[in-house]
Amino acid sequence: MSTSKPAAARPSLTEGPIAKTLFLFSLPILLGNVLQSLNGSVNAIWIGKFLGEQALAATSNANIIMFLLISAIFGIAMAAVILIGQNLGAKRVDEAKKVVGTSAVFFMVLSIIVGAIGLIFSPEILDLLNTPADAREFAIAYTRIIFAGVPFMFGYNLVMAVLRGSGDAKTPFYFLLLSVGLDVLLNPLLIEGMGPFPRLGISGSAYATFFSQLVSFVLLLLYLYRKKYFLRITKDDLHMLRLKWDIVRALIQKGLPMGLNMVVVSLSNLFLVHLVNSYGSEASAAFGIATQISSYVQMPALAIGGAVTSMAAQNIGAGNWERVNRITWTGVAFNVGLTGVLVSFIHLFNRQAVSLFLPEGNAIDIGVHINNLTLWSFIIFGIFNVVAGVVRSSGSVIVPLVISFIALLLVRNPLAYLLGGLYGFDSIWWSFSISFTVAAVLNILYYRFGNWKKARMRPAAKPA
């Protein structure tokens, strides 16, 4: 095994100016999040334009399934990011490679099992979701192809986690750009059968996603081996391609709570949709558009949160606790600045932003009102997201999950129902700022006084 490459040539998040490093590291993550959101929006436009409402309903049902899969794999991938980061920070390159080897085998086995279950039981899974009868056949065809591509989706997420854990956020972004470009280009060609391509309908959209992920994943692997990436598995490292159970246990025990955090957010939003739907279709449409706009507002916080997790993990591995503290508050300051600018910009052009999605009518006024009351609260959301990201980087993942559960499901949702019942529709939206403030305060208190610094990703691992 070759580990003789000079350490200075490897990505490192344990030295250099924190603000510049954090900005340059989080920027590709932010752009990647924007790309993925735009990809979903553009593909929905193609499907709606060419195939109609039933096809859109089919993809919506399939996307619920995929969200649950992505939630689980996101958490496990983040656990891999932290494990790799801590080992590299402690200069344990061999241990980091063992994480890569075990994760590769684990993800491969997991993806084959999940893909096979999805291929065989897609009809039954969609029936459990009560998929509309007129969209069922569309949904089955679409979902089966998406499940067939699960190994490539899981594989890409793992490689992305390895790269980010080692301090490289640019390479994943470049290949994500390739994947998104291919997906957007192939969707209309395969749906409608333009030029030499066959007309595949809803299956064409699924195949576009399948091939774009396959091509991007394979080319990314080829690129890393050609560049002799220092964490690649070589012939001398084949013994690392096995399930090391303490690593698997860490990936599951630490990863699932991080994935469940996404499920908590999704459940909270579903309860809000249920409440808003009771006020009629105009309110529902306005809330849907406000949610879409807020998803872009949250992106800086999510990107900075992901970046500080990787940076803090390496510095925790190196024992640089003072630098970890500076990373935390630099991340908070970045979030306040970037999200604040974005919120201010949307407020200036609030009606124009909502009008992009809705025809003239009362729904626009409702959407503008929702934005006026909720958008600024996402600055607070970013604060607790960044602090929670640092806490998770030590291996303390349960407390941030519990705080999210309390803030969203025990504070925001009940408060929204209570305020709506007592004071009407307009008062629902104060639940956002109150719940986010609760989450921010609890996370900061745990960061300041909790024992998160004593957490370990792998109990058997030697402390740095």
TrEMBL record:
CDD domains per UniProt: MATE_yoeA_like (cd13138)
Report keywords, A-Z: Cell membrane, Membrane, Transmembrane, Transmembrane helix, Transport
Record carries keyword Transport: yes
Q: Where are the transmembrane segments?
A: 64-88, 100-121, 141-161, 173-191, 206-225, 258-276, 296-317, 329-349, 369-391, 398-422, 428-449
Q: What is its main location?
A: membrane
Family annotation (InterPro entries): MATE_fam (IPR002528), MdtK-like (IPR048279), Membrane_Transporter-Flippase (IPR052031)
Name of the protein in question: MATE family efflux transporter
Q: Where in the cell is it found?
A: Cell membrane
Q: How does it sit in the membrane?
A: Multi-pass membrane protein
Q: Which organism is it from?
A: Paenibacillus baimaensis
